[in-house]
Design brief:
Belongs to the phenylacetyl-CoA ligase family. The protein is of the alpha/beta class and 432 residues long. It has eleven helices and 21 strands. Bound molecules: adenosine-5'-diphosphate and zinc ion (ZN). Zinc ion binds next to loops.
């Protein structure tokens, strides 16, 4: 383990540490314009915290709160103590900005290094960071973590597949950081360039930043001949390095000595039963410049009961099912995009990409799933294609309980974004 003591703390010792750090966080947060006001209105001071469970006495912080305080409302110190800012990619609206002191950057790099160590990376590894740099935390966040671990780090950035392949071959890259929706596209491209992924030097991929299913992971592993590990983070909680798989690949360890995690019912705000799915809520307890308390991530997951075989004692979360905002309601049934991905990525004829379109049929909402089919299956035989289409629609109906429209499209015909994939497109206004 990278930090043996911190990663193997007994539960009681960990919770004691969390309570101490939470108390300290409240003291610090009270120096920010936003929390000083919130604390005054809710009569909150550090003395109300005795155990980590007392975190429930604190109010939630939402994305809207962060937006309303943009840019400086949550800062606990004067601006000259800060050395970096990042902003969320704005997938769901106006971005939010996060500021870091040098100490915050150090803490983050340590969390990242620990995460990478957990999946087997060592200082002898060469890591190519294929995510966009700039404001997106997947660039510099992974970069500094990799350097902290001592890996030779190749800041390739996103896009330009040919050049990526050249760098990988020239510098014997053993690890990739790559967005899952791009990984499948990349694998196909590597083959198209005449290389066999099995002959490439890589062995480990860190994949994250967007929801993906176990099937998609398996597909990435097979197509790239690589071991792929799930990486979870969000800019409000630094960025990547919040929760990470270990070599067991059985859920992501949340680094609980830096974050207090809760899972709540998104409607009521109450904690869900242990092991039930709900919204992840997180509190920073080692950040000094911009602490955030009980942040509503909108991400849906569950705690995985029991201990991990690796010996780390922090709890694990299941892969993210999606964002609460991504839920579609069709004929009264709740549907998550990942339910759809789970089915289609398990069908051998399906290629790398898909998109879910929300459409109107007469007066009712309907979804149309456009699925790319592998070149070898996209034959002229209409009957075979119709059979495939029906089969996919049937399997989807079994999973989501309503029958969606299914459209089979040619390999590489769905536009591929360089950043996070947009899986759901609402066409209800534009199509009549
Ligand atoms: P944005 O909300 O604009 O995308 P971020 O770049 O901060 O901003 O992205 C954080 C979000 O990305 C998370 O809240 C989550 O929805 C998603 N995400 C990050 N890592 C994963 C992962 N491993 N699995 C699923 N979703 C993830
Ligand atoms: Zn583990």
């Amino acid at each position: 383990m990278y930090f043996h003591d911190a990663e193997t703390l007994e539960r009681s010792a960990l919770e004691k540490l969390q309570a101490e750090r939470l108390k300290k966080t409240i003291e610090l947060a009270a120096n920010s314009p936003y929390y000083s006001e919130v604390f005054k209105n809710n009569k909150i001071d550090p003395s109300i915290i005795e155990t980590v469970d007392d975190v429930k006495k604190l109010p939630f912080t939402t994305k809207e709160d962060l937006r309303s305080q943009y840019p400086y409302g949550l800062l606990t110190q004067s601006l000259d103590n800060f050395v970096r800012l990042h902003a969320s990619s704005g997938t769901t609206g106006t971005p939010t900005a996060v500021f870091y002191t040098q100490k915050d950057l150090d803490t983050w790099a340590d969390l990242m290094a620990r995460s990478m160590y957990a999946v087997g990376l060592r200082k002898s590894d060469v890591l190519q960071n294929m995510s966009g740099y700039g404001l997106f935390t997947g660039g510099l966040g992974i970069h500094y973590g990799s350097e902290r671990l001592g890996c030779l780090t190749v800041p390739a950035g996103a896009g330009n597949t040919k050049r990526q392949i050249k760098l990988i071959r020239d510098f014997n890259v053993t690890a990739l950081h790559i967005i899952p929706s791009f990984a499948l596209y990349f694998a196909a491209k590597v083959r198209a360039e005449g290389f066999d992924p099995a002959d490439m030097p890589w062995k480990i991929a860190l994949i994250g930043a967007e929801p993906h299913t176990e099937h998609a992971r398996k597909k990435i592993e097979e197509m790239l001949h690589i071991k792929a590990y799930n990486s979870y983070g969000l800019s409000e909680m630094n960025g990547p390095g919040v929760a990470f798989e270990c070599t067991q690949q059985s859920g992501m360890h949340i680094w609980e000595d830096s974050f207090i995690a809760e899972i709540i019912d998104p409607e009521t705000g109450d904690p869900v039963e242990d092991g039930e799915i709900g919204e992840l809520v997180m509190t920073t307890i080692t950040r000094e410049g911009m602490p955030i308390i009980r942040y509503r991530t909108r991400d849906l997951t569950r705690f995985i009961p029991g201990q991990c075989k690796c010996g780390r004692t922090s709890r694990r979360i299941d892969r993210i099912m999606g964002r609460a905002d991504d839920m579609l309601i069709l004929k009264g049934v709740n549907i998550y995009p990942m339910q759809i991905e789970k089915i289609i990525m398990g069908i051998p004829e399906v290629g790398q990409n898909y998109v879910i379109e929300l459409i109107k049929e007469g007066l009712v909402d309907q979804i149309r799933v456009k699925v790319e089919i592998k070149e070898e299956f996209f034959v002229e035989d209409m009957r075979a294609l119709q059979g495939l289409q029906k089969m996919i629609a049937g399997k989807l109906r079994d999973e989501i309980l309503v029958t969606p429209r299914v459209e089979l499209v040619q390999h590489n015909s769905i536009p591929k974004s360089e950043g996070k994939a947009k899986r759901v497109i609402d066409l209800r206004e534009t199509e009549d």
